[in-house]
Design goal:
The structure is a single chain. It contains 15 helices and 21 strands. Strand 14 and strand 15 form a beta hairpin. Strands 13, 14, 15, 16, 17, 18, 19, 20 and 21 form a nine-stranded antiparallel sheet that branches. It has a four-stranded mixed sheet with strand order 2-3-5-4. The chain has about 500 residues and is α+β, with helices and mostly antiparallel strands.
Amino acid sequence: MKSWFSILIAAAAIRGGANAADPVNPSQHATDCCGTLTKALPNLTYSNGPEYQRSIDSYFSLQDRLTPTCIVIPSTSTEVAQIVTLLGNNSCPFAVRSGGHGLVVGAANIDTGVTVDLSRLSRVSLSADKTYASVGPGARWADVYAVLDAQGYAVPGGRAGSVGVGGLITGGGNSFFAARYGFVCDNVILGNGTLVTADNTTRPDLFQALKGGSNNLGIVTRFDIFAVQQGDIWGGVVTYLPTTARQQISAFADFTDTIVDDPYASMINIWLFVPSSGAFFIRNSYEYTRTVENVKAGPPPFKTFLSIQPELNNTMRNSNLSDLTTELESPPGLRNIYSTLTFKNDAQVLGGVVNILQAAINVTNRDQPFYLAGWEFQPLPRLFTDHSIERGGNVLGLDETQDNQVLFQLLIAYNGTDTNGAANDAAMQALSDGIIAKLTEFLEGAKALNKFVYLNYADTKQNPIAGYGEANIRKLVAASQKYDPGQVFQRLVPGGFKLPIPSPKTPETT
């Protein structure tokens, strides 16, 4: 299967780069930048009003609802190229957003600067030969599935419909199809201001770097994602009591080690505590990317899970992706912290992790400052990486790992307005930091910790790029310097996880 990107790296047009010196008055400089954009693109630039507010209010997490000096909303790749050229030539700080679902504050929005909102680049279409779908970076996965479900096709993509296409893919991307086709980024074809194409043979360095490179290389204005003919799939959610914990852990470890035998299977093991009601429960998402005749019995990979009793709720059914991806949505309008680790798949290790988490979150205490807290375990078998290698590889660094792994996500959601948000942020960040520190100590002692830190789940204090390994970091840096010679996306895009590119040396004077 051929795999390629067609990316618009708008930064490539700015060959020399502009003066990178920080302005004396950042606020005035940002205002001047917005004035330049308004003059050049008056119908796309907003400093206030309904379009400005719509963009701000559409961010998933309250922390990322910042106040950019202006927001520019392009509709075409040509407009994107023009915008980035103007921003680069005038040394304007900016951020780029796709769906606005990420939780690293400042990665997709900016205070005192320009936010480039890609929401109008959201077109979804299936190619004439039905081998790939062309998708704009501003589309949500719900938009993608709505178009493709109607035509009997699917693509590997996000498991929650409200998540944006661009951020998920450039951060790696997990999907219901991962055991069949690898990470979402390994199924994409990409776009740049000079309109370059990248694949295994044409610009393979760029092709590989974009698969995990996040916002460090340019703005992708179109993804072409391999499509497969697909009818309804078996899926849904089953909820259990926490008294089934031992059975859950054993079943999860076995599922992760045997998914290679039936790669149509996918699952997420979710543990949630809601202190307001005192509810602590396990909510598993099961998906099998085929229709199953006996819905209740389910396919063989889930036999052990479905034998666990009692079930508090069971929504298993044959349905399409548009429907199934509504069940994994998180509640919007809250403040959120995610954090992540990766470790060797082992039932004993999983049990130790669960013990630490239950104690740290204190799941028996209803007097808590958060709305909900919990964690997820997701299978991360070697099989995913084998598919990645077949498609030209990525920069995630998992090819160095032979053992099956577990992708762990910590999630904390809590209330907090602009007036009290800072105090709540500090307390919740301390809780998250403490849990990750305890887990890291335990996993290191068990010789189970993997250096991979999944960028799309990483906390702002984590360093997912470092986890890619030195060889992949060198590839990323080289691609950045080659395809963004003015270093626009390092100098002027401050948010997110940046590359460790050394600052230019100041010439010595005599």
